[in-house]
Design goal:
Elements (H helix, E strand, L loop, with lengths): L4 H4 L21 H24 L4 H22 L9 H48 L7 H9 L6 H4 L11 H9 L2 H13 L3 E2 L11 H7 L5 E2 L20 E2 L6 H12 L3 E3 L3 E4 L1 H8 L2 H21 L6 H17 L7 H5 L10 H20 L4 E2 L3 E2 L5 H8 L2 H6 L16
Parallel strand pairs: 2-3
Antiparallel strand pairs: 1-5, 4-5, 6-7
Helix pairs in contact: 2-3, 3-4, 4-5, 7-12, 8-9, 10-12, 11-12, 12-16, 13-15
């Protein structure tokens, strides 16, 4: 994705999965011991360098070092190298691949394909950061050509290698992209919510906003509600017609948009949830008023994480949710191409379903389209006769959905050319 290797590893590169730790529990070899000692000697300098590019990220730097040690141990074992500051291209590629395969084998059982994919990205980005560190701080002991070869590994390994296999992401000038993202209703509502947090807001032990703060927070995202004991005849959030009809909610999670944006702010590390308080992070100032290139990274990342939560966060115990998510993802992917899908054809998709499944297919298709309409209200796509993703946002669709493991997880092993497919029954 758009962030450099340091920024991706501020806890952001794993989309909430977190650092995977060692891929295997094999006994410590002499090579592993030597690799640990060599990396330990560089740890203080690496953490300082890491924080220069990503303030307040010492913990993330240490998590990266765990993966760096694992890969360097494999590298030394395979190449019999004497140090970790002069890395040979072939040995480094194999060491990374071995660790990634070990991580995938361990992680997929626990978190599924998406978690395994994100965890393997963490490995690649951590080592990428280490090689950049060696080069940028003058600690690389090989030749400049060898350094270039080592960095070339990351052009063919990692998150971009498995994704973006269907979409062509257009080049958008930075200034234009910043303007487009800044004007998105989603970003404006996230900005309002972040500004409302101010220097901090109290939260419950679960990290949720207190009942008395829900109304103000919901107003930031354009929803009128009030927190309190819910009455039986209370209208649903976002359906109120007058001030007297403002719905009552007992939790922020009864306001879906507020919950999604709150979780996105946490996932992108724009806020930090402490035991009793939510506070802004150093990244929040970059998101709000940072210099264009760094601000654009934060804006793109928030959209990415919002899409992950809004589309991919389905309950595996509810098969119909997977179907609805698959429909949304397939339409979004098609909408990001030069041949966007027709809305009428998408709505008519249940006509192609078996007779006994038409009713359910219609319900699921309408649900998916309604959720896409919600995304359109936030500026993430446009809907008229067709579904279309704005050019500047195609990168976000590619970041989130254009990957074989994500598509397989949704049952979309083959992405349709258009939205004329029926629900995946």
């Amino acid at each position: 994705m758009g962030k450099n290797s340091r920024n991706r590893q501020k806890g952001k590169g794993a989309s909430g999965v977190g650092s995977p730790g060692r891929g295997t529990a094999t006994p410590r070899s002499l090579s592993t011991f030597r690799a640990d000692r060599a990396v330990d000697a560089l740890t203080p300098a690496f953490v300082r360098w890491f924080e220069e590019g990503s303030p307040d990220s010492a913990v993330a730097a240490v998590e990266c070092l765990t993966q760096i040690k694992a890969v360097m141990g494999r590298y030394m074992e395979r190449t019999a190298a004497a140090d970790v500051t002069n890395l040979e291209l072939g040995g480094l590629s194999v060491a990374i691949s071995d660790e990634v395969f070990a991580i995938v084998d361990t992680t997929e059982t626990l978190t599924g394909p998406m978690g395994a994919f994100e965890s393997s990205n963490f490995v690649v980005d951590a080592v990428h950061a280490f090689v950049e560190f060696l080069g940028e701080t003058g600690r690389w002991s090989g030749t400049p050509a060898q350094l270039a070869d080592a960095l070339d590994v990351f052009d063919t390994t990692g998150e971009d290698d498995g994704g973006q296999v269907y979409l062509e992401v257009p080049e958008i000038p930075e200034e234009e992209a910043v303007e487009v993202f800044s004007n998105l209703p989603l970003i404006q509502r996230a900005t309002a919510l972040l500004q409302w947090v101010g220097e901090g807001k109290p939260v419950t032990t679960t990290g949720a906003l207190r009942l008395r703060d829900i109304a103000a927070a919901a107003a930031c995202v354009g929803v009128a509600v009030k927190g309190g004991i819910k009455q039986e005849d209370s209208p649903l959030p976002a359906t109120a017609g007058s001030a007297d009809e403002v719905p009552t909610v007992r939790s922020m999670y009864e306001v879906p948009l507020l919950a999604l944006l709150w979780n996105a702010l946490e996932a992108t590390e724009l806020i930090e949830l402490k035991p009793t308080k939510a506070v802004p992070t150093a990244d929040s100032s970059v998101f709000l008023v940072g210099e264009p290139s760094k601000r654009l990274e934060e804006l793109v990342f928030l959209v990415d994480q919002f899409l992950v939560a809004a589309v991919l966060d389905w309950d595996p115990e509810q098969p119909w949710e997977r179907i609805a998510s698959g429909l949304q993802a397939s339409i979004l992917l098609a909408a990001a191409t030069s041949d966007p899908p027709e809305r009428a054809r998408a709505l008519a998709a249940p006509d192609n379903a078996p007779e006994a499944e038409k009713a359910m297919a219609g319900i699921l298709t309408n649900l998916a389209v309604k959720r896409l309409e919600d995304l359109a209200e936030l500026g993430l796509l446009t809907i008229d006769t067709h579904f279309r993703v704005p050019p500047a946002l195609i990168r976000c669709i590619a970041n989130v959905f254009d990957d074989d493991s994500v598509l397989a997880d949704l049952g979309l092993d083959q992405v349709p050319d258009d939205a004329g497919v029926g629900p995946l029954m």
